[in-house]
Write a structure and sequence with these properties.
heterodimer, A: alpha+beta, Aminopeptidase, 3 domains, seven-stranded mixed beta sheet, five-stranded antiparallel beta sheet, 19 strands, B: alpha/beta, Aspartate Aminotransferase, domain 2, 2 domains, 13 strands, 42% helix, globular
Chain lengths: 441, 373
């Protein structure tokens, strides 16, 4: 069950992509945000991002290009996209590192996308059909992070019932999760107002367990990719002998999403005792935060429908990794040697980078393969590390040949495959982690 | 072309069912030389002997000509068998066509149908992709909850679907429970009793929905030749109701949807089913006793009543268990899609296959428990 809320609001603007229109684009972002009741601070973040991105890309397109800007109020955040078309684009220009000398502070200051990424909550670059480039960014509302909530007494009695929460229920539940001191609390749950607004927007789903009038636990989920959901919890506020409430919550959540379009469910928090009744174990990843503190995420997964099988073309370290994972998880995939297609590669590769500064995390996604893949990856690592990023991951879709072409370059630059998330992208998603950088951090 | 402008919202949001891939591909992908199907509740004894002969003797000349558009001869045979006028039968391309036709015939946007949350999914699917609300009532003790269904009825409720016995739990309403329910429902909405597995039930208290139609004209019965009669590959089922109800459903049914061979085989199957039904019941009973004992010995909970299937609670997630068993050549049904995460459903078949399955299950369970230790 994935709810879609139709009350979302948007506004759009189509203008020439040229410098004289920069003020209009910036005004559109700022006034659009204020029109949807975002604060001056929140609106200004978007103005800054649009200014940087518009200025950066305007130099790279033909003179008669048009750009479309769209802002969409999703309740808890404003989503802004900048979309334009480029005939025969010089793909190198879409790399963060293009014409940047990472050793030059002056050069870094000129790096529009980096500055833009710092001012918003997320930023990513997508290539669509017909050479269409879309820059997607979001700016979350600023929410207070703490709210006091009492936890249920340890001796609550009576039958447990499960309910779909209202926004107010979820606001209260979020505050209870914070009060409980749970070790893994996602950002949206640490801000009770944000979780409530996400629920209202249909971007989050939840089931709460009640005993009498007390909320004694709950579980939440939301899309991670187009084909995969992420589950949070269950969070339990009382002792739960024999995992009765935990089982009720997980079975109910899985039952509700089992007939949705999603093919898989991922949980990537701490360890879950007795996980094997509900999930397959994928592995663990360590992240080093801005403060230097390390957190370990244990990745669990379950399919939501019977396996359809598939063929994966790859070679080298990736083939070895995949063979091991497919065997361990009993996933029916035929691995076929791809034989390498280096000769057909274009000169320049392109990487999209999604930056999450609060987690000091850069998620790198291949967009186009090219002869310079290893150099390009290395340049991104240098640049991002100089910018204070501690964690580097690369996501490879096994169903996308442009992604698979990166495997040798990843190996050469110190990336190692760490996790396989089945069916989470075009095919399976392999997460590479940078070994050397992790060791240094 | 922007397809979104053309597609109704209730179709756009609907997720189509993905059937399993052909056996030869599955065998290749899972690396097995054989695959025992224990997932679709097929009757592996095969069709009754008379139907087997009709299929074997089927002349290619018959494939040239359109079938009887209203399955005339088959309806005649059904009429003689059940002593009900042939115009009160509508033969369909399996029961899925019957479900689709009856929802199209009686429901429009804003209406609702009611059924259980954990039952045959097609009632819910057809309602959803037709823009009709599907109200789902939780099972109580693995069985349809009469009061729960009654509580959800409102002025826009058009059809209540009761799967009796229920797939996948095997629970069923007795005649008295069904009569009590029908009296409370009243006559302003249809009650479809899906009797796909009725031929497996021996309990004299099990109701016959066809008999109840004289007293309750809003009752409609669905039956199929896919289960007991082992003609799943030919797709033939039938709907029985009052003449008025059937006349309406016929308007939304596709003429010629049931092919010549299916009509002929189904008619023959009806004429020669006594020994076939007895033999099948014996096979299922033996398989159920055997598999329940195996599960008890392994400490696995089971749920099953009637029908040729048994649900087993497994100690790992059911989709992983499905894949592990596939690697041993055993294709079961994972129950996440039925909203029973952690359960598998196993078709009860001939003993040789049940013994192979028991061996595979036992090895898997031991392996899982050893890893845990």
């Amino acid at each position: 069950m994935i709810k879609q809320n139709k009350q979302q609001k948007n506004a759009s603007l189509r203008i020439p992509l040229s410098m004289p229109f920069l003020p209009l684009a910036v005004d559109f972002a700022g006034k659009g945000a204020r029109g949807f009741a975002y604060t001056d601070k929140e609106s200004h973040s978007l103005e800054l991002a649009v200014e940087e991105l518009f200025s950066f890309y305007v130099q790279k397109v033909a003179a008669d290009s048009a750009v479309e800007l769209e802002v969409e109020d999703q309740g808890y955040r404003l989503a802004l996209s900048i979309s334009f078309q480029m005939a025969n684009p010089d793909m190198r220009a879409f790399n963060l590192v293009w014409q940047v000398n990472p050793d030059s502070e002056e050069s870094l200051e000129l790096l529009g996308p980096m500055i833009a990424a710092r001012s918003v909550s997320s930023l990513r670059l997508d290539f669509g059909n017909d050479d269409r480039i879309t820059l997607r960014m979001t700016r979350n509302r600023d929410y207070p992070t703490t709210q006091v909530a009492a936890l249920p007494p340890p001796n609550t009695q009576g039958p447990v019932r499960l309910v779909e929460p209202s926004s107010s229920d979820l606001r209260h539940f979020s505050a209870m999760v914070s009060a409980s001191g749970a070790p893994f609390i996602p950002g949206f749950l640490a801000s009770p107002g944000m979780a409530a607004d996400m629920l209202a927007a249909g971007h989050l789903n939840a089931i709460l367990a009640l005993r009498g009038d007390w909320i004694i636990g709950g579980v939440l989920w939301r899309p991670l990719t187009d084909s995969c959901l992420e589950l949070y919890g269950p969070y339990l506020f009382n002792d739960d002998p024999d995992d009765v409430v935990l089982t009720l919550l997980l079975d109910e959540a899985v039952g509700r999403i089992s007939r949705s379009r999603f093919r898989g469910l991922v949980r990537r928090q701490g360890q879950l005792q007795g996980y094997e009744r509900f999930f397959d174990l994928l592995g663990e990843l360590d992240l080093t935060g801005i403060s230097g503190a390390a957190t370990r995420s244990t990745y669990y997964y379950r399919q939501l429908r019977e396996e359809g099988g598939g063929v994966v073309y790859c070679s080298g370290a990736l083939a070895t990794f995949l063979a091991d994972q497919y065997n361990r998880l009993c996933l029916p995939r035929q691995l076929r040697e791809n034989g390498g297609e280096q000769l057909r590669l274009r000169d320049a590769s392109v990487l999209a980078v999604e930056l999450e500064y609060p987690r000091s995390l850069a998620i790198i996604r291949p967009l186009c393969a090219g002869k310079d893949m290893a150099a390009n990856l290395a340049a991104h690592l240098d640049l991002l590390q100089n910018d204070g990023i501690n964690n580097f991951m690369v996501e490879i879709n096994t169903g996308r040949s442009e992604d698979i072409a990166f495997t040798d370059a990843l190996e050469a630059t110190g990336f190692v495959p760490r996790l396989l998330i089945p069916d989470a992208g075009l095919g399976d998603l392999v997460i590479y982690e940078h070994r050397v950088r992790k060791q240094q951090s | 072309m922007n397809l979104d402008l053309l597609i109704p919202e209730y179709v756009r949001n609907f997720e189509a069912y993905t059937p399993s891939r052909p056996d030869h591909l599955l065998q290749e992908e899972y690396g097995v030389s054989h695959l025992h199907r224990l997932n679709n509740n097929e009757n592996t004894l095969g069709p009754p002997a008379a139907a087997v002969r009709v299929i074997a003797d089927f002349s290619p000349d018959l494939a040239v000509v359109y079938p009887s558009g209203d399955s005339y001869d088959l309806r005649e045979a059904l009429s003689r068998r059940f002593d009900i006028c042939r115009d009160r039968f509508l033969v369909t391309n399996g029961s899925c066509e019957a479900i689709t036709s009856i929802i199209k015939a009686f429901c429009q946007q804003g209406d609702n149908i009611i059924t259980a949350d954990k039952t045959f999914a097609v009632y819910e699917w057809v309602a959803e992709f037709s823009g009709v609300e599907a109200r789902l009532v939780p099972l109580r003790d693995y069985a349809y909850d009469p009061q729960g269904l009654l509580d959800r009825i409102d002025a826009r409720t058009k059809i209540i679907f009761i799967c009796n016995p229920n797939n996948p739990t095997g629970s069923y309403w007795t005649k008295q429970v069904l009569i009590d329910f029908l009296e409370k429902v009243g006559e302003n909405r249809l009650v479809v009793v899906d009797e796909a597995y009725c031929e497996y039930v021996e309990d004299p208290e099990f109701p016959d929905a066809m008999e109840l139609m004289e007293r309750f004209p809003n009752v409609v019965s669905f039956r199929t030749f896919s289960k007991m009669y082992a003609l799943a590959g030919l797709r033939a089922g039938y709907l029985t109701g009052t003449r008025d109800v059937v006349d309406v459903v016929r308007r939304t049914s596709v003429t010629y949807s049931v092919n010549v061979q299916a009509q002929m085989a189904a008619k023959a199957a009806l004429s020669d089913d006594r020994e076939h039904i007895a033999a099948t019941r014996t096979m299922v009973k033996q398989a159920r006793l055997f598999l329940c004992k195996v599960c008890t010995d392994l400490g696995l909970e089971t749920v099953g009543g009637e029908g040729n299937y048994l649900m087993i609670k497994v100690p790992i997630n059911d989709l992983l268990m499905y894949r592990r068993l596939m690697k041993r050549g055993m294709m079961v049904r994972s129950m996440t899609g039925f909203r029973f995460p952690g359960w598998i459903r196993v078709t009860l078949r001939e003993m040789a296959v049940m013994e192979s399955f028991a061996e595979a299950l036992t090895e898997e369970i031991r392996e899982i428990r050893n890893v845990r230790v």
